Amino acid sequence: MEIWINPACSKCRSALSLLDAEGAGYTIRHYLEDPPSAEELAEMLRRLGLEPWDVARLGEPVAAELGIEAWPRDEAARGRWIEAMAAHPILIQRPIITADDGTAVVARSPEAVRSVLR
């Protein structure tokens, strides 16, 4: 499994601690330093079963600069959201775990982290 993290994020550190406590094998991706491509984001969203606006961090300063909160949230605008997140990975909610079985989860709670361990 792979976990996308920002080391400065307390939720990310908590998720890593829980994975370690459970003895889970994982790879860390520092997604701010190694941003996902638009294609990787689209695949991650497919695995999550979510839309880009569902995992966007709208409180980030760059979100305000882009005016992203006012963007349409429909299929026609989906690509625009994904491209913005690829260009500005700080907009991506964290941590995200992609499991070996093809599932993925936004791992902001211990329950969400444990869901990929089952």
UniProtKB/TrEMBL annotation:
CDD domains from the UniProt entry: ArsC_ArsC
Keywords attached to this entry: Oxidoreductase
InterPro entries: Arsenate_reductase, Arsenate_reductase-like, Thioredoxin-like_sf
Family under the similarity heading: Belongs to the ArsC family.
Protein name: Arsenate reductase family protein
Species, as recorded: Microbispora maris
